[in-house]
Design brief:
Layout: E1 2-4, E2 11-13, E3 16-23, E4 26-34, H1 36-42
Antiparallel strand pairs: 1-2, 3-4
Length: 54
C-alpha cells in the first residue's frame, strides 16, 4: 500500500498480510498484520529503538 497521510502529508508505504478463516461458507475471523513502525513514522510519531544492553 502506498499513499500520503492526511495529518502530516508524509509519504506512507507498508506491506501487510491478511489471514482469513472461512467457516460454513462465510468469514468467521479476519486478522491483518502490518509494520507498525511505518505507521508511526508516517503520522509523525517515530519509534525510538535502544540497542540491546542500554
Amino acid at each position: 500500500m502506498h499513499g500520503r497521510t492526511v495529518g502530516t502529508g508524509r509519504a506512507y508505504g507498508n506491506r501487510f498480510v491478511s489471514v482469513v478463516t472461512i467457516k460454513d461458507s462465510g468469514i468467521s475471523h479476519r486478522r491483518d498484520c502490518l509494520d507498525p513502525v511505518a505507521v508511526c513514522e508516517a503520522v509523525g510519531r517515530p519509534i525510538h529503538h535502544e540497542a540491546p544492553g542500554n
